[in-house]
Amino acid sequence: MENILSVRELSSDDIELIINYWTTADEAFLKGMGVELSKLPTKEQWRGMLSEQLSQSYEEKKAYCVIWQIDGKPVGHSNVNKIIFGEEAFMHLHLWNNHDRKHGAGVELVKKSLPYFFKNLKLKTLYCEPYALNLAPNKTLSKVGFRFINEYITTPGFLNFEQPVNRWELTSERFKELK
Where are the domains of the chain? Predict the structure, then answer.
């Protein structure tokens, strides 16, 4: 029997799930994603950031998160930050448990997330800049239809160490073609 994949917006019930993902993840896994462990927020800081999202309109959001579900059970999330409403945002992909990875669900869950980002934030361009050495998100983005732009060295987010990243891009025009 095939699993039913779905996506929905973040709710207050999801906050602890996301906090647990970040605070209980294996250090080697986090480093493999490009995370600088010393930069991880506390549980209270996570709670504050995620709660703030719930109280803001789309136009005000600094970050926006959707929850990934398999058979109605939350298994991960995708979020965007560096949002310029009506213009662009940067996407991140997170399957919380190892047993949910490497089965192709990520590609379908990303595809199901895209309408939330493009429609609600009125984006013209969605970027994703995974750690170049983390193969899984790079393969996923290629399969979804993102266009590879370049590889360069940067500190891509507030959680990261300086690293090589691959910049991927999906324009609203290309997104409409993928539907």
Answer: 5-178
> Tens digit of pLDDT for each residue in 4-31?
999 999 999 999 999 999 999 999 999 9
User: What whole-number distance in Å separates Cα of residue 122 and Cα of residue 124?
Assistant: 7
Match domain 5-178 to its CATH number in 3.20.20.140, 3.30.450.30, 3.60.130.10, 3.40.630.30.
3.40.630.30
What confidence tens digit (pLDDT) does each residue in 50-104 have? 999 999 999 999 999 999 999 999 999 999 999 999 999 999 999 998 767 767 7
Decide: helix, strand or coil at residue 116: helix
Which residue has tokens 């990934």? 68
Tokens, residue 127:
């970027």
In b/e form, how buried is each residue of 114-147, taking b as 16+ CB within 10 angstroms? bebbbebbebebbbbbbbbebeebbebbeebbbe
For 21, residues 6+ apart whose C-beta sits below 8 A from its C-beta are 76, 77, 94, 96
Pair of tokens at residue 116: 């939330």
Query: C-alpha angle 60/175/113, rounded to 5°?
Result: 55
Sign of the alpha-carbon dihedral angle for 37, 42, 43, 47: negative
